[in-house]
Fold:
Amino acid sequence: MKATVVGEVVIDRFFQADGSAMDVVGGSASNTAIALQRAGVETALRARFSRDAAGRVLRAHNEAEHLDLSAAPDVDEPASIVEVRLAADGQPAYVFRLEGAADWQWTAEELATPLPEGTGVVLVGSIASVRSPGGPRTRDWLTQLSPRPLIAFDPNARPAAAQTEEAAREMRAGVADWCRIADFIKVSDEDLRWLSPGVAENNQAAAWSQDAAFVVMTRGANGSAVFVDGEMVCEVPGERIEVADTVGAGDTFMAWLIRGTLLATEQHSLRELAHDTGALRAIVTKAGRAAAINCTRRGCNPPFAEEV
Structure:
């Protein structure tokens, strides 16, 4: 099983109650790639690593997780910094320092590096998928691949990264563009409330499932719901756990959703999987279990396959 993840690598700067700060390697793409690798999926990470001190830390961290970084260039732009403050319930609030950062500047030449042979899924999502100029270039590159692997999409919306209404409109439009070409999608109910204001979360997830083979909407402690052909086909309850924090929960869930889909599509087409509700329920249940294990730990610390 092989997957490629395309997106950002960032420094998450966690501020403590006393005002002190601690830097932690993060970024949705990095988190998900690490979760995939730990889940037993051979994973390549396509990210742009700054040559600055933060960028060197980011590359070293991802190398230590045995990710394939052969198509991840070193560049002169600075690394992205995300300030994180945790609420009493463990939910993170983010402030993004992104202007001019390395993650958003993909060139067509950088993206043209061939995927590892046997790549079954390419995951895109979060800020890097919608922020110009790199987001649209990534979409153009993927749509022109032949043969084309499955495209997984996780909007992982970050409203705080849209500092103007124009930026918010651009992000929402970018998400809509990705949803039209994605083969399967994971999205949180919280994301949907921001992405489609005034539209019920179930309705928007159902609408996306008319283009994608299936859409999984996560609902935090309340579990998840699966949509196929414009209808909800099943719900999966949440796991009962003692929450340390929820950082990386969605990334871990997405990694295990990809893992399950890769395994299932070794024997069946994606469309056949979408119409096997029992198989989808089993995949989503395991993804929820992996995410729950992550939530019992501080920061993003996804489980290994033998833990799930």
